[in-house]
Amino acid sequence: MKETPLSNCERRFLLRAIEEKKRLDGRQTYDYRSIKISFGTDYGCCIVELGKTRVLGQVSCELVSPKLNRATEGILFFNLELSQMAAPAFEPGRQSDLLVKLNRLLERCLRNSKCIDTESLCVVAGEKVWQIRVDLHLLNHDGNIIDAASIAAVVALCHFRRPDVSVQGDEVTLYTPEERDPVPLSIHHMPICVSFAFFQQGTYLLVDPNEREERVMDGLLVIAMNKHREICTIQSSESPSSPG
Description:
Belongs to the RNase PH family. GO terms for molecular function: mRNA 3'-UTR AU-rich region binding. It comes from Jaculus jaculus (Lesser Egyptian jerboa). It is found in: Cytoplasm; Nucleus, Nucleolus. By secondary structure, the chain is of the alpha+beta class. 20% of the residues lie in helices and 35% in strands. The chain is built from four helices and 14 strands. Strands 1, 2, 3, 4, 5 and 6 form a six-stranded mixed β-sheet that branches. Strand 5 (122-124) and strand 6 (128-140) form a beta hairpin. Helix 2 (97-111) crosses helix 3.
């Protein structure tokens, strides 16, 4: 099911408002929507609300064999899913271009920036390492999926605890939370994505576009930074809905 296109009247109204530095929800040009974070009963489970955009983050782990070329490093895996519950336009079971782009951007922002110390996930070099999997589910879509997803991923990773292990000879013992306290992940830094929508060939710029603003934008600039003011990734892309 395709999303209902905006009428020319709506499009003109939105663009005129942006030219006058006004937004439908009353925000200023560089205002972010309010962020609400709630936690589940399990470690590594959270829901992030960015305005009306909601993302569920869930971290899980398992002991696996390491990659051949990285014998002493654990594995970090990200998976974002867009369901029809979030917006009717998202087709179930289909890898859309948007989904592929979002997953790649998340991996660049979080895995390639080495925010998690993957060497601390090694249990037995060349044999057993922790694979940390971050599943992100979009529950409601009202624009700026990538920012909400990056916050949900970082929060879930910080909240997560893996089971403690001990190694004696060739034997690896896994402890339950009752036997030993679970262990937090070793986190170097926390990269967060901030999205800027631009309009009319970059004449106008907005932070944290909502769903309607995304429909009339010419393109999107995403910058991922941490508190040390280091740029972890940067990506500029043209909006599929932009003319030309």
